[in-house]
Design goal:
101 residues; 7-stranded antiparallel β-sheet
Amino acid sequence: AAAVKPFEVGSVMHGVCYSPFEFTMKVTGRKGMKMEGEIEWPGLQSKTRFVGRVGKGALTFEEVELLAGEDVAVPSSYVGTIEGNEASGEVEEAQVTYPGK
C-alpha cells in the first residue's frame, strides 16, 4: 500500500503533549485546507473530535468534542508547524475544567 502523507485522510500521527500525555491523531476527513478527525489519549483513556486547518507549513486545530473518557479539557486549541513528515506545536488555549467532572 502507498504511504499516506501527513494530515491526509487516513493518516495517523503519534506524539506526546506535555509528557507523559501520548496521543494518536487520526484524520478522518479533509477538504482543501480544512480537516477533521479524532485524537486518542491512551493514558487518559479518552478520545476527542477535532477540526482544523493545515497548509503551507502551518497547522491549527481545536478539540471540539469529548467522545470518550473525562480527563481532557475541551475545547482546546493548538497551533504548530509542519516540516516534512513531522509536526510540532503547542496548546494555544485550553479550558481549565474537565467536562466529565
